[in-house]
Amino acid sequence: MIRAMGTAASGMKAQQMNIDTIANNLANVNTTGYKKSHPEFQDLLYEKVMPGGQIDAEGRAAPTRVEVGHGVKLVATNKNFSQGTVVSTGNPLDLMIEGDGFFQLRMPDGTIKYTRDGSFKLDADRSVVSSAGYRLEPAITVPEDAVELSVSRDGIVSVMVFGDDANVQEIGQLELARFPNAAGLSARGGNIFVESPASGTPLLGNPGLEGMGETTSGFLEMSNVETVDELVNMISAQRAYELNSKTITMADEMLQTVNRLKR
Q: Are residues 189 and 231 in the same domain?
């Protein structure tokens, strides 16, 4: 019975983590570029009560074994990088990636971090920056006399100059990054991911080439969280939590029965 209590307690802890993950997904249902997470679990070590193949008194080998598990543990919270829902904004600096890839952002310390959030803006120097003020990499600066900006599906940034409707100038080329294992990226908050040993080294390329997704201007990729699925998962996790708590109650009642036994 003591083993049952520990096993059930590990199940309650696992379902608590499951609920925490679901709650974070639901909290970010309207976050631009958010990718939902799901926890992955593994069973714990098994106690071998009777090994398999044991020879009985008649010389026959038992075809099975007796093993008792010790519960469950959390091994990963995996990111799902499927395409999120699309929202039309009409703003040419709002960009989304159709397919694989990440925008690159230059941090104040010079490092590069990655995002699927394409809600870009102009700063005081007319450089293209993220909502948090991090500069897009490679850097793109919009001229002061530009009256119209456009971004093609292959990432070419062009502007129309004031006073000359026929003069369209290319001012930059977007470059995307993709990873051998995007699920291995480390999420740092603020819609930002960081390269990790599990993700592998980033592969750089222009949109639409070498497996990179294409860019679409005037649209944003929202969260890929499906509210109904998350609510169903929450109900399932809650029921599993309740069942594990009842297991502890039952084991406690059995121990009470044993304590009341008289010789």
A: no
For every residue of 85-133, DSSP letters joined together read: -EEE---TTBEEEESS-BEEEE-TTS-EEEES--B-EE-TT-BEE-TTS
Q: Which of 48-62, 65-79, 120-134, 152-166 has the lowest mean pLDDT?
A: 48-62
Owner of token pair 């520990």:
6
Domain count, the chain: 2
pLDDT, tens digit, for every residue of 3-57? Answer: 888 899 999 999 999 999 999 999 999 999 999 999 999 998 888 777 766 666 6
Identify the sign of the CA torsion 192, 104, 144, 87: negative
Do residues 92 and 208 share a domain? yes
Nearest partner of 200 among 181, 186, 183, judged by Cα = 181
- Same domain, residue pair 113 and 205: yes
